[in-house]
């Protein structure tokens, strides 16, 4: 928006601002303070001015973002042993056909084991290093 447009808005009385709102926004003006009308009109004028460039900016921003790889998934076979050190303690988990065995107890998920070991909610695969994240 040009500076002339802004200075013109500053000089307008409330009735002129309401007419300008209708022209710039294409809707009846809301019953709001003149300063808010000025801001709304300025936004509408700027939005109209930038409409052609908006998609180009979004595409450029998206193109600049690195492509995120999905987390790596590893398949665990029965007989696999998972070992993790946690706060000076060695955590050893055996993978079975039915789930997992940790300290002679059966578990249906690695997350339950990780939560028991740490005392907080954890992603089991992340805790045992089976994903690329974390």
Describe the protein in words.
The protein folds into 2 domains: 62 residues, no CATH class; 47 residues, no CATH class. The chain has 134 residues and is of the alpha+beta class. 49% of the residues lie in helices and 14% in strands. α2 packs parallel to α3. A 4-stranded antiparallel β-sheet has the order 1-2-3-4, covered by helices on one side. It comes from Sphingomonas montanisoli.
What is the compact description of this entry?
This protein is an alpha+beta fold and 134 residues long. The chain has 5 helices and 4 strands, in the order αααββββαα. It has a 4-stranded antiparallel beta sheet with strand order 1-2-3-4, covered by helices on one side.
DSSP summary: helix tally:
5
Low-confidence stretches: none
- On the 0-100 scale, what is the average pLDDT? 82
C-alpha Rg, in Å? 31 Å
In whole angstroms, how far apart are the ends? Answer: 46 Å
Number of strands: 4
Give the strand content: 5-15%
InterPro entries: DUF2924
Protein name: DUF2924 domain-containing protein
